[in-house]
């Protein structure tokens, strides 16, 4: 145990050296190292080469930490590769999810910007990327198109690597890989259930984003080094977390209670929204999950409307939108006999289980 702690700490220190070489390329030691070992590239792209010295090999063994924990902050977009690099702070591994078909000329992030470098080219984004990528990319601020792109360490708010946060990151990744192994069976069933739901794809995507922590909540952006006020855009008094956004604010709790699922969400003991959602996906009837997904989607839309249109929708509007979009979808996708299914605004849908699974995933 003690050995493992020392080894991780040592790795975190070596990664600091790699970080220094990357961020201070003009220091004497950086220049010496570069001239000798990687004259034509950056330390983060360099390979060990044959028979590396002990010092060189040690630093190279720690470079993966910087590679894994950093994300580009976009300036000109000239140095960042669309398909290979880490540059989407809202996705778990910071990379695009869309697969490169290899048939376009788009290679660098600047190719996705408007010709004047001011803002994203929405036509290019929508025509070439999955919605989950294009909507994430449009939310990435372009610092100044005349500025250089800069690599940010995502475990410090100021984007600079420290040994302490490097060590912490290693522990987080280790714990995550253990959890992933343990829960992968459960996850497979969750994804299968989710993608097979007969409902609007956007509604499934938002659930996927919640369960993979890839929703751009303000509390998450801060953790990922993006400067913003972490408060809920609606009440501006609580931090915008998953629980606050989808369950614990008074407005949201009224929304759930007045909706078709008629849920007293605040009465659920030890509530964790992700856990509850996973449990519901696995255990609740499809027609109710479809309602839940629609409520969640419309809550998120209302949240965006608070931010971008400065407009706070009342609960009633969310109920109506929830029913309306499911009905429109059913109507567009059903045969004549099926059009009988209709979601009214006050149906008698049975109660969904209120208790989340016993410490699942924790
Ligand atoms: Zn709030």
Characterization of this structure:
The structure is a single chain. By secondary structure, the chain is an all-alpha fold. Helices cover 51% and strands 2% of the residues. It has 13 helices and two strands; from the N terminus they run H-H-H-E-H-H-E-H-H-H-H-H-H-H-H. Helix 1 crosses helix 3 and helix 1 crosses helix 6. The chain is globular. It binds zinc ion. The site of zinc ion has 6 residues, from loops.
Topology (elements, then pairings):
Blueprint: H1 2-23, H2 28-37, H3 54-69, E1 70-73, H4 122-128, H5 131-138, E2 150-153, H6 163-196, H7 201-211, H8 218-223, H9 242-248, H10 250-258, H11 273-283, H12 286-308, H13 315-333
The structure holds zinc ion (ZN).
**Sequence stretches where pLDDT stays below 50 over 5 or more residues:** 344-362
The largest sheet, given as strand count, sense and whether it forms a barrel, is: 2 strands, antiparallel
Q: How many helix segments?
A: 13
Principal-axes geometry comes out as globular
Radius of gyration, Cα only, in angstroms?
24 Å
Please give the order of strands in the largest beta sheet. Answer: 1-2
Oligomer: single chain
Task: Please state the average pLDDT score.
Answer: 82
Tell how many strands the DSSP assignment holds: 2
> From N to C, what is the helix and strand string?
HHHEHHEHHHHHHHH
Q: In which range does the helix fraction lie? A: 40-55%
What portion of residues belong to β-strands?
under 5%
Derived structural class: mainly alpha
Bound molecules: zinc ion
Structural domains: how many = 3
Euclidean distance between termini CA atoms = 22 Å
């Amino acid at each position: 145990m003690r050995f493992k702690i020392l080894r991780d700490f040592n790795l975190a220190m070596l990664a600091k050296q790699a970080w220094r070489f990357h961020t201070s390329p003009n220091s004497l030691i950086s220049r010496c190292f570069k001239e000798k070992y990687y004259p034509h590239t950056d330390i983060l792209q360099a390979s060990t080469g044959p028979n590396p010295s002990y010092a060189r090999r040690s630093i190279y063994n720690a470079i993966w930490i910087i590679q894994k924990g950093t994300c580009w902050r976009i300036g000109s977009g000239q140095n960042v590769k669309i398909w290979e690099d880490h540059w989407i702070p809202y996705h778990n591994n910071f990379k695009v999810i869309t697969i490169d078909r290899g048939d376009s000329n788009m290679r660098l992030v600047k190719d996705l910007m408007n010709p004047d470098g001011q803002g994203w080219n929405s036509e290019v984004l929508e025509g070439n990327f999955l919605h989950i990528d294009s909507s994430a990319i449009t939310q990435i601020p372009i610092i100044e198109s005349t500025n250089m792109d800069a690599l940010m360490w995502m475990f410090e708010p100021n984007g600079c690597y420290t040994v302490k946060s490097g060590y912490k990151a290693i522990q987080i990744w280790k714990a995550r890989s253990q959890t992933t192994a343990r829960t992968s069976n459960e996850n497979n069933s969750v994804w299968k259930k989710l993608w097979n739901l007969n409902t609007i794809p956007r509604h499934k995507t938002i659930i996927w984003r919640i369960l993979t922590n890839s929703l751009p909540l303000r509390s998450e952006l801060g953790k990922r080094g993006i400067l913003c006020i972490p408060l809920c855009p609606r009440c501006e008094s609580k931090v915008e977390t998953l629980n606050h956004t989808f369950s614990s604010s008074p407005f949201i709790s009224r929304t759930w209670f007045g909706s078709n699922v008629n849920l007293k969400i605040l009465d659920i003991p030890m509530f964790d929204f992700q856990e509850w959602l996973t449990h519901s996906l696995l255990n609740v009837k499809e027609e109710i999950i479809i309602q839940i997904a629609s409520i969640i989607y419309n809550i998120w839309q209302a949240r965006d409307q608070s931010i971008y249109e400065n407009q706070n929708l009342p609960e009633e509007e969310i109920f109506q939108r929830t029913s309306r979009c499911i009905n429109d979808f059913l109507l567009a996708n059903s045969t004549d006999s099926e059009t009988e299914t209709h979601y009214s605004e006050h149906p008698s849908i049975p109660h969904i289980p209120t208790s989340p699974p016993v410490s699942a995933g924790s």
